[in-house]
Amino acid sequence: MSQQLHIALVGNPNSGKSSLFNALTGLNQKVGNFPGVTVDKKTGTSKISESLKAKFIDLPGTYSLYPKRNDEWVTYKVLLDQDPHVHADIILVVADASNLKRNLLFCSQIIDLDKPVIIALTMLDVASKNNIKIDVAELQRELGVLIVPVNPRRNKGIAELKKAIEQTTRKHYKKSENLFIEADPLAMPAVKEMQAMMPGISNYRAVHYLINHESFALDEKLQSDIEAIETRNNFNHTKIQAQEILQRYAKIKSVIKSSVVEIDPLQKELMTKRLDDILLHRTWGYVILLAVLFLLFQSIFALAQFPMNGIEWTFAELGGWFSNILPDGWLTDLFVNGILAGLSGIIVFVPQIMILFGLITLLEDTGYMARISFLTDRVMRKAGLNGKSIMPMISGLACAVPAIMSARNIENKKERLLTIMVTPLMSCSARLPVYTVLIALVIPNKHYLGFIGLQGLVMMGMYFIGTFMALVSAYVLNWFIKSKEKSYFILELPGYRNPRWKNVFTTMVERARIFVVEAGKVIMIISLLLWVLSTYGPAKKMQAVSQKYDLLQKQQPAMATEFRKEKGTELLQNSYAGILGQGIEPVIRPLGFDWKIGIALITSFAAREVFVGTMATLYSVGDDAGENNATLRQKMNAATWPDGRKVYSLAAGLSLLIFYVLAMQCMSTLAIVKRETRTWKWPIIMLLYMTGLAYIMSLITYQLFK
Predict the structure, then answer these.
(1) Cys-Cys with 584: which of 161, 382, 396, 598 at CB 3.0–4.6 Å?
(2) Could you give the count of Cα atoms lying within 13 Å of 706 in the half-sphere of its Cβ?
(3) What contacts 385, CB < 8 A, 6 or more positions away?
(4) Per-residue pLDDT averaged across 180-191, rounded?
């Protein structure tokens, strides 16, 4: 019969913990929530040996055993055996070899809890590139626990790590003896009293009971007894914590000196300082940031233009070809105007999404993204936020859902809520297809000075409007959300490093895959549903339209082509989709929108990118076979009001762009806000204020430009 272990996987953020969890558990993973908190709980199983299996619990990343955020408290309670749902037999600590000094603080604290510990040493390749050499055997001797070098991305060291787990299970490890903490600085009398009351706990575990017992699920008598120990011994939480950290770093310095060799660290520090003096300059830092963003958005248009044109042309030709060779009938219509049109609305935007995420990954890999947080802290504070808010907001350029979840890293509850409430105003990748098609429709493809594209400038403007309105909204909401909690901003700036090109390429491919598979499912389902709603309608109305134009074609055969177009348009207007769109048209007409745009506004509430798929379907239904080789942009450009005016004029195009910049057009975002705030109050407020803001600003834009 095989034995099953429970192993807690812990470590600093960005230490490679998630990669190791994936390497150990593969596809045997489950994602849930820790009871009572909105913190993800990832668990996975792995076979250690023939007679031993392990269940790994991937705990949220944290820097030390002094928690501030909700996710840090989750990790802390598991490590202190205060979580009734999770018990760890072994603690597997992931430590980043390229930043060992910082990682050893957390490692040493866990070692002193006096539980079986194994350290998985990651990022040795990065350390080597930075001219850092680590004597693993000496480090293991100094710490008194098993240390296993691993590279989870290449699946190296996994077998050795499993062997170390097996050895630790069978007690074949050197037990640590509180090497880091001495008696006197940590109020030994109070510690001894705690150990008399709770036999078997280590010195350091006793210290944590004294500091955080109020947050533990202890009975009333035990709580009052601990309070009495604190009072008798004049136990000062802040002083003890400060003494501990100083003492640990003194010991860590000694450990590093004996086991780590860093070649010419001064030269590296000088280079980092010189770059920071430029990139974090009070004036030039912001100029460089604007230049970086300018190049990013210019590149999205310039680099993606050729592949996008090729994809559009291919689908247009395919539509015409299939219409000509397939027999007339509803099945052909479904395939060409439903499936093919919906698919074209997905694939055409893959180049831009890949370029956007490739460039963002470059900024992250080089260490510049953290500098953006530092630069923007001053601006953020004026809006009631802090520098940590910029990371969720920048993540919102990809998708608001994980961005809102990442706001858990903000310790201050008010600033966290403000960040959640304004992050959806950041232009996510789902808006990119909408921006692209509308900008191409209404903005001329002009260039200034030979290389500055007007369309790229407008695209950049959309992102700036979203960011500006996010800050304005935060400033306004700051007056209504009250809190006495103090705010602070501490950020460790990573060293500059060469980008990992494989990581950049992998991210580009993965993001494209997610867009095509995840967003594509929604787009295709809604495209097919729209085809049904646009093709069918009340039987009497649809029959009357068909009879009317059949009679006209018999009476005037020379006008047959013109009558077929008019028939297609009128059938669409009398379909279920047409009735729905015309029902809301009076509300949206002041914004310059017709009933087809109204349908797109409704369908894109499922996901913003559905707008393009909706347009592709609506402008395909009713086409003649020969017209299927026209691109979506050509069809939208030809759309007119009954009086002959273009539907997509400059005013209407800009109005629609502004609406999509500001509107809450995403059910998933509302769901995640409800999950994170644990109430429907804030999602409803978000929906109302963003929709109202979008309507008012779109109305002003249309009136200004019409």
Answers:
(1) 598
(2) 18
(3) 415, 418, 419, 471, 474
(4) 64
Predicted confidence (pLDDT) per residue in 520-534, tens digit: 666 667 667 767 777
Q: Say how many residues make up the chain.
A: 706
Q: In this predicted structure, what is the pLDDT of residue 333?
A: 66
Tokens of 206: 């006793």
Most confident option among 102-111, 410-419, 592-601: 102-111
Q: What is the pLDDT of residue 149?
A: 93
- CA–CA distance, 639 with 647 (Å, rounded to integer): 6
Q: Which residue has the higher pLDDT, 335 or 458?
A: 458
- Comparing CA positions, the residue from 392, 397, 511, 391 lying closest to residue 462 is 397
Give every CB contact of residue 650 below 8 A, 6+ residues apart in sequence: 442, 705
Amino acid letter, residue 301: F
Cβ-based neighbour number of residue 452 at 10 Å? 12
Domains of the chain plus CATH, in order, are 3-169 (3.40.50.300), 184-263 (no CATH)
CB 445 within 8 A of CB 454: yes
Q: At what angle do helices 17-25 and 158-169 cross, to 10 degrees?
A: 80
Please, are residues 663 and 605 in contact by the beta-carbon 8 Å criterion? no
Stated pTM of the model: 0.59
Q: What are phi and psi of 453, to 5 degrees?
A: -85, 135
Max mean pLDDT range (416-425, 581-590, 695-704): 695-704
- Kindly state the percentage of the chain with pLDDT values over 70: 79
Three-state SS at 148: strand
Cβ atoms of 664 and 674 within 8 Å: the answer is no
pLDDT of residue 21: 86
**Alpha carbon of residue 36 to chain centroid:** 23
Q: Establish how many alpha carbons lie within 13 A of residue 641's alpha carbon, considering only the half-sphere containing its beta carbon.
A: 12
Round to whole Å and give the CA distance between 686 and 481: 14
Please, which residues have CB within 8 angstroms of residue 370's CB and are 6 or more apart in sequence? 491, 492, 493, 494
- Mean pLDDT of all residues belonging to the chain: 79
Residue 15 CA to its chain's centroid (Å)? 18
Nearest to 110 by CA among 243, 14, 255, 12: 12
Confidence at 492, pLDDT banded by 50, 70, 90 = low
Dump pLDDT digits (tens) for 366-415: 777 777 777 776 777 777 776 677 767 776 776 676 677 667 767 778 88
**Alpha carbons 191 and 186: distance in angstroms, whole number:** 8
Helical H segments across 326-399, by residue range: 330-333, 341-347, 350-366, 368-382, 390-395
Across the chain, which distance is largest between two alpha carbons, in Å?
A: 107
Please state, in angstroms and rounded to a whole number, the distance separating the CA atoms of residues 550 and 552. Answer: 6
3-state helix, strand, coil in the chain (%, to 5): 65, 10, 25
Phi, psi of 42 (to 5 degrees): -100, 125
Question: 340-376, pLDDT tens digit by residue?
Answer: 766 776 677 677 667 777 877 787 777 777 777 777 7
Residues forming beta bridges with residue 262, ordered by sequence position? 132
Cβ 115 vs Cβ 121: under 8 Å:
no
Element (H or E) spanning 49, and its range?
A: strand 40-49
The pLDDT, as a whole number, for residue 535 is: 76
